[in-house]
Amino acid sequence: MAEDARWSLDDDWDWQMRCARAHDALLRGTDSWVPPVEEELVLAARASALSRWYPSTSHNYLRFLDGPAPWLPGGRDDVRYLPGCISFAKDGADGSAVFRVWSGFLLQTPDPVLVLATPEAVVAVEALVKVLTTDD
Fold first, then answer.
1. What pTM did the predictor assign?
2. N or C end of the chain, less CB within 10 A?
3. Could you report the per-residue pLDDT of 125-136, keeping only the tens digit for each?
4. Are 129 and 49 contacting, i.e. CB atoms less than 8 angstroms apart?
5. pLDDT digits (tens, 9 = 90+) for 109-120
6. d(CA 25, CA 19)
C-alpha cells in the first residue's frame, strides 16, 4: 500500500481474514482452549450486514469499530467500538467450539448481556447483526 493511501474497509477485512487464517493454523493440533474457528467466523461476518463496520479480534472474540482504528493509515481518533461482540471457546460438551453473542462490552461495567450461545458461526453472526442494528 502506498504511504499516502488510506486504509479502506476492504483492506481491513482482507487483513482480518489473513490474521484469522494464520491464528487458526497456529491453534490446530494444540491443546488450547481457543478453537481454530476464527476464519470461519470472520468469513460469516464479512458475508453479513456486519461487513459495513471495521472488524477487530482480540484473543478469542470478534468485535467491530465504526471507523478505521487510530493506528491504521487514515485512522481516526474518534473511532468507537460497537456495543456487542462474538466470543468463541472450546466449551461444547465434547470440546467443540461454542460461539457466544454479547450485547455490551466484554470485561467492562456494566457487565455485558449474553444474547445467544451456539455451535454455528453463521447463527452467531445473525444474532450479532440484530444486536448492533436494533437502533439503526
1. 0.90
2. C
3. 999 999 999 865
4. yes
5. 788 999 999 999
6. 10
